[in-house]
Automatic annotation (TrEMBL):
Residues 244-432, 741-907 form the Peptidase M16 C-terminal domain. Residues 89-202 form the Peptidase M16 N-terminal domain. One of its GO terms (biological process) is proteolysis. This is Insulinase family protein. Keywords: Hydrolase, Metalloprotease, Protease, Signal, Zinc. PANTHER family: NARDILYSIN (PTHR43690), ZINC PROTEASE PQQL-LIKE (PTHR43690:SF34). Belongs to the peptidase M16 family. One of its GO terms (molecular function) is metallopeptidase activity. It comes from Erythrobacter ramosus. InterPro entries: Metalloenz_LuxS/M16 (IPR011249), Pept_M16_N (IPR011765), Peptidase_M16 (IPR050626), Peptidase_M16_C (IPR007863).
């Protein structure tokens, strides 16, 4: 897309008058002196493009039609590239550099070097001094961690840059800086020593029970292969022994032109993009002797192995892991050697048939779980893992210690799929689901983001396959549909469960519950064939469903006053915001805001808030249970996300133009004629009980589970229910709590996207307009706001049961809430980003805190108060006092002296660009306008949004820091390992051995 969509044009019209408006409290600054701009050298014409009859490098040997929107090139030095014009979002360019080397390419002594190199390239390079990369990309408008990032996998290392607000100068500078990072990093002992603690911190943060079981699983499933002994994060021993010379030797072997693919997608002339690739990478030459890719190995069964009782494959390596804080889970896999394929249409037709076969089995397994089976969930998935194996994995979670019964039930469903063909109706149902996905891909092609397109090519290169245009995928699928017969699907199903060896891992919290011998016997036992999980295939039509009520009356229908959005009011009090636009072809977002949110709960019924998020949707609508709703949605794009916010409940769905009316019916019917099936509540209880102890396995888990509860001073509404609380919950109690809540409080419906405007207005009248008038939210409920924890001279301390070298620390300051001070809250976002940058600088070097330090602001717009600013980090226990000292020092410094102009620019430019990019989609406008039917001030405040986030002054930041940080009493929390105490903070001057009593079982 090379021009603004309607939403993009609207953004320009809406914000142009406010581009120079100073935000709240801002002060005018003197204009900078003029800078003489040197003309840029011309970008050379690309010479290595593969044009005419030449087959692009990505499609060699394939009959998949070349996506003509891409330009491909291969330079003499071996660098391959792909470039493409794309204007989503406008004025952004996404650059990916993929190096064909990951952890599988390391020697035993080099484990972790590929990932360490990823860090070192950001550390220092030809055009960037030490630790300058983050600042440089921020000045170009990129947010570090999202717009500027990298990843290391077993098979590759990929560098990812999304540069917003691009122009010729920024584009040239981006290629220059990136080329210096890739081609000429500074790899010496000093830089290795500086980055080592950060990498070790990442390793530490990933540790604990989850990592131990992940390692056990990897070592078991890939026994005898390189993948079994290599993780991208490396080992303590190899990382601590790393030095500049050895890391450079790894770099020289693998960071070479012939191992490099560069992908560039953006709102620019693709010939210019290709020219820049050739300009900055065309004369690159490797150093020293190139590396030779090692053999990753094949899965091999042990001699004389007994056969699996379902697949007939020999049973190989097995393991039982005991972790008291992890729920039960069992995975077994039928494994085959991975071989590079010729990516042809026929090959892809086989993959699509496999996908249909898996979907049929998974729907049967889900039906069994929903109906009160012996397992919480179960899934079958074929996967090609790190070019090491082609495997079919079966994973499930037993509900009790009788894992053998659960295994037998899962295997029985699979045995039926291997013995008897599916019905044509089952096949047609799954085909309809795939068809809508692929058709939606065609509709959405013009709004697919450049970053996603670039990532798709990188992933295709990694798995040694091609990319296909959405229309090609749809045509291939529709062309093969007549050949998807029961016998064909049965044959492909059997192929999924044929293999070289079967391996398995069982994780349990209870020692003695299983051992390898018992697991082997269970897998070797012949499975019974059970076809009772097969679902009735008859379709259900929306036309057969009862009306929500008597059609309502429209009492007002007026422009909202912004863009082309219309407000529609109904006689029953329901209000809707409707915006028909073509910003996202074929896509519609529907959101329903209703009720009181977390305000509706208290300590006596808080357990049902958590269960509601897992069971409310599944409990059904009218005469339709979850299985019937699934059938109703067949061949449609229907969603049903439910969330509880501070002051409101929300239903949200992404749907299509042709399905939006049905989506509105379902949402309205859930409010007007809810069903109260018991099984979803029982299942949600079981899931919550099984998951509860997993939070205790790391400080990050404790943060996820308890931070909201602790920072609100023990408000039970924000507690994660423990097993004792869950035992008190019943399906009857669930209905007693939720039934009145679905009838309470105002309703606001937002419909944004491409749709038939008159038809949607009429459907709103027939659905939401037909609902009974709502009951008011009680005054005492409406007045509830989240409290703030009492503060003290010493931090509160809670413990976790993870590794002894893991800890976390939190400092939180109360702020505010409501729409009246919304502009000030936007300025607080700038302040928190300033804080975040300073905290990262302080902790990465001093405490080896990886990239985990973060500072964020939460300002509830639907409540008058209850917001806060939070700073947190995961680190080693001895550095928790350092965190408190540094966080409080930064808070004081921000209040005592204003930030520099450069600091502000590195925050406001990325924020400005983030808003400009986001505002080209409907989600941005929906998020910022929700609630406007109840509070029209939100519409007025929308006009200053860009300015509020991107324009400020050092004095404003100092003022806000003084108000919200220096003059407020913070809540401090330390999460440390069981059995340890917190040392005195070296600079905070306070002992930190206080404790906080958590709820029972916590």
């Amino acid at each position: 897309m090379t021009s603004f969509s309607r939403a993009g044009r609207a953004l320009a019209i809406l914000l142009a008058p406010f581009a120079l408006v100073q935000p709240l409290l801002a002060q005018q600054a003197a204009p900078p002196p003029p800078v003489e701009v040197q003309p840029l050298p011309p970008v050379p014409q690309p010479q290595a493009l593969q044009t005419g009859s030449e087959v692009p490098w990505l499609y060699k040997g394939s009959d998949v039609p070349v996506d003509e929107k891409w330009l491909f090139g291969q330079m003499k030095n071996g660098v391959r590239y792909a470039v493409r014009r794309n204007g989503v979002p406008p004025r952004q360019v996404s650059i990916r550099v993929r190096i064909d080397a990951g952890s599988l390419h390391e020697t035993d002594k080099e484990q972790g070097y590929a990932h360490l190199l990823e860090h070192l390239l950001f550390r220092e390079s030809k055009y960037l001094g030490q630790a300058e990369a983050i600042y440089a990309w921020q000045r170009l408008g990129a947010t570090f961690g999202s717009d500027a990032n990298a990843e290391t996998s077993p098979t590759h290392t990929a560098y990812k840059l999304d540069i917003p607000n691009i122009d010729d100068a920024k584009l040239s500078e981006s290629f220059k800086l990136l080329s210096g990072m890739i081609r000429e990093p500074v790899l010496n002992d000093a830089n290795v020593s500086a980055e080592r603690p950060i990498v070790l911190a990442e390793k530490r943060e990933r540790g604990g029970a989850g990592l131990r079981m992940a390692d056990l699983t990897r070592q078991t499933f890939f026994a005898g292969q390189r993948l079994a002994t290599r993780s991208p994060i490396g080992t303590d021993e190899t990382l601590k022994a790393a030095n500049g010379k050895d890391v450079k030797a790894f770099y020289d072997r693998w960071y070479r032109p012939e191992n490099t693919v560069i992908v560039v997608v953006g709102d620019a002339d693709p010939m210019v993009l290709a020219g820049l690739v050739e300009q900055w990478f065309g004369d690159w030459k490797g150093t020293g002797k190139p590396g030779v890719a090692p053999d990753f190995g094949d899965p091999v069964p042990p001699a004389g192995a007994q056969d699996d009782g379902v697949t007939g494959a020999p049973i190989g390596q097995l393991a039982v892991g005991v972790e008291p804080d992890l729920p039960r889970s069992l995975t077994y896999a039928v494994m085959r050697p991975w071989r590079q394929v010729t990516d042809t249409i026929k090959y892809n037709e086989g993959l699509l048939t496999d996908a249909v076969a898996q979907a049929i089995i998974n729907r049967r397994l889900e039906s069994r779980a929903r109906g009160g089976g012996s397992f919480l969930y179960a899934q079958v998935q074929q996967d090609d893992v790190s070019r090491s194996t082609d495997a079919t994995f079966v994973t499930f979670a037993p509900l009790t210690g009788d894992w053998q019964a659960a295994l037998a039930d899962v295997r029985a469903v699979i045995a039926d799929a291997l013995t008897n063909p599916p019905t044509q109706e089952e096949i047609d149902r799954e085909v309809a689901e795939f068809d809508v996905v692929f058709a939606n891909g065609v509709e959405q092609e013009t709004v697919e983001s450049g970053s996603d397109l670039a990532n798709n090519v990188v992933n295709a290169v990694d798995i040694r396959e091609t990319v296909a245009a959405p229309k090609v995928v749809l045509d291939v699928f529709r062309g093969m549909k007549p050949r998807l017969t029961p016998d064909v699907v049965l044959e492909r199903t059997r192929g999924l469960f044929e293999g070289t060896v079967t391996r398995s891992v069982y994780v349990t919290p209870t020692a003695g519950e299983a051992d390898v011998g018992v697991l082997k016997l269970a897998l070797a036992a012949e499975a019974k064939v059970d076809g009772t999980a097969r679902l009735a295939a008859q379709s259900i039509s929306f036309d057969e469903l009862p009306p929500v009520g008597s059609p309502g009356a429209i009492t007002a229908q007026n422009p909202l006053g912004v863009l082309e959005i219309e407000q529609v009011d109904f006689a029953n009090g329901v209000k809707a915001l409707v915006w028909a636009n073509d910003a996202e072809p074929g896509r519609v977002t529907v959101r329903v805001r209703f009720g009181a949110g977390y305000r509706a709960f208290d300590k006596d019924n808080a357990v049902y808030a958590a269960l509601g998020q897992g069971a409310l949707v599944g409990s059904g609508v009218g005469e339709l249970g979850q299985n019937e709703l699934d059938r109703l949605a067949t061949g449609r794009k229907i969603g049903f996300d439910f969330a509880i916010d501070e002051a409101v409940f929300t239903f949200t769905a992404q749907t299509r133009s042709e399905d939006v009316n049905d989506q509105l019916y379902l949402f309205a019917a859930k409010l007007g004629m809810p069903r109260w099936d018991k099984d979803p509540v029982i299942r949600a209880k079981a899931a919550s009980e099984l998951a509860y102890n997993t939070y205790s396995t790391s400080p990050g888990g404790i943060l996820n589970r308890d931070l909201e509860y602790l920072v609100t001073g023990g408000d039970e509404r924000f507690a994660t229910p423990d097993p004792a609380a869950l035992k008190t919950a019943t399906p009857e109690g669930f209905r007693a709590v939720w039934e009145p809540l679905l009838k309470q409080g105002p309703i606001e419906v937002l419909v944004f996207g491409e749709f038939d405007h008159p038809a949607v207005i009429e459907q709103l009248r027939l659905t939401f307009g037909a609902l009974p008038r709502r009951e008011p939210i009680p005054a005492d409920v409406a007045a509830r706001v989240p409290p703030f924890a009492p503060t003290s001279a010493t931090p509160s301390v809670v413990t976790h049961r993870g590794d002894a070298n893991q800890a976390a620390a939190v400092v939180a300051w109360p702020s505010g809430g409501g729409v009246a001070s919304l502009r000030e809250s936007r300025q607080l976002e700038i302040l928190t980003q300033l804080f975040n940058n300073r905290l990262m600088d302080a902790l990465r070097e001093r405490a080896g805190a990886s990239y985990s330090p973060q500072v964020f602001s939460n300002w509830p717009t639907d409540l008058a108060s209850g917001g806060r600013i939070t700073a947190l980090a995961q680190l080693e226990p001895e550095f928790v006092p350092v965190f408190f000292a540094e966080a409080e020092k930064i808070a004081r410094d921000l209040a005592a002296s204003p930030p520099t102009a450069d600091e502000l620019e590195r925050v406001t430019e990325p924020l400005s660009q983030m808003i400009r990019r986001a505002s080209t989609g409907n989600q941005f406008w929906l998020y910022n306008l929700e609630g406007a039917t109840q509070d029209p001030q939100r519409v007025i405040l929308l006009r200053s949004l860009l300015a509020d986030y991107s324009q400020t002054s050092p004095q404003v930041m100092q003022f806000l820091a003084d108000r919200y940080l220096a003059k407020a009493s913070p809540f401090r929390l330390a999460i440390i390992p069981e059995g340890q105490t917190l040392a005195e903070a070296p600079a905070a001057g306070a002992s930190a051995n206080a404790t906080l009593t958590a709820p029972s079982g916590r």
